[in-house]
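#struct-help
A.M.: can someone run this one for me? Single chain, 162 residues.
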Amino acid sequence: MTLAHGILSYSGEGDSYSVAGDVVTVKANSEQTNGKYALFEVVVAPQAGPPPHIHSREDEAFYIQEGSIEFSLDDQTIVATPGTFLNSPKGQLHSFRNIGSVPAKMLILIAPGGLEKFFARVGVKVENSSASPLPITQEVIDRILAIAPEYGIRIVLPETDV
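D.P.: on it. Structure tokens below:
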């Protein structure tokens, strides 16, 4: 909901998408913030999280609400627990993974906004943030790899010996 001078989003509100093991709920989109930022509530399934990647356009900030999430930031590894805040500036190689046995939850702030459009394109809309994430299939991976460059995201896949 957009207020006369701000944004109001209650618990359970916002468009939710299943994206590669996560459920991403848009709490504030770039249209509501004049492009300045977007805010997401993200539920990360146990042992799930995105592959290493680099944003060329956005800074990304994380605030852990529930669970234990392991972050890789360039060559540094950090285990983040509830109350932890960290920032990954644009251009930094980063990834995260829920290292717990239950879903983890965090807020992610992206500045400038617009990344919610990426999630809408690569994800599958689900009823709400309580929905179980859909399985990660080769089709999902291929869709993410194909669309990510349009949003200035470079996915860094592990090298394999063939």
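A.M.: thanks! Helices lie at 115-122, 138-147.
D.P.: also worth noting: The chain has two helices and 14 strands.
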